[in-house]
Amino acid sequence: MDSTDEALWAAARSGDGDAFAALFDRHHGRVHRHSARLLTTAADADDVTAATFLELWRRRDDVHPTTGSLLPWLLVTATNLTRNTTRSTRRYRDLLHRLHHQPAPHRTPDVADVAEVHTAAHLDEPLATALRVLRTPDLQLITLVVLEDLTLTEAATVLGLSPGAAKTRLHRARTRLRTALADHPAASRLRAPEGQHP
């Protein structure tokens, strides 16, 4: 059997469980690493990764590997799910505190859990925090172009943006991250290649 994403996805959509398992094995690690970049607990990263592949199957009639790979779609979906997870957790925590007539305190994640997530994602806390404050469309572009090395054209196709809009949005996202990170070593990676500034 052809082992490209397109061939495996076509087989999976026809009911081949082994083909879907092969896609899961191929992309699970990168989807999990990306989820861990945006979340503060290992359990949440595990949940989002699983939910991303469940969403892939649920939307199987609508998903097509436009760049030859399912990975960009998986990363964008994981980004959206991490935002939903973060909002849901915050709302649930705030509700519990309101029920007890107490103001919701700032939650400090368990240090060991945070360390596990960021070690798995090869990130430190300043970079993870800077990524989490980006707006979702900006984070999607940074994820695809800066962190996962897709071309701007590929990322624009996946996100349904014109190349010009993607270029402008990416420039603004890079600028915001460079400002947030200041002297952080990762700031150099956020500089746009020559000729990419709008």
TrEMBL record:
Residue span(s) of domain RNA polymerase sigma factor 70 region 4 type: 127-177
UniProt keyword annotations, A-Z: DNA-binding, Sigma factor, Transcription, Transcription regulation
Membrane-spanning ranges: none
A Pfam family the protein falls into: Sigma70_r4_2
Coiled-coil region list: none
Domain named RNA polymerase sigma-70 region: residues: 23-91
NCBIfam families named in the record: sigma70-ECF
Family membership: Belongs to the sigma-70 factor family. ECF subfamily.
Name the record gives this protein: RNA polymerase sigma factor
Classification of source organism: Bacteria, Bacillati, Actinomycetota, Actinomycetes, Kineosporiales
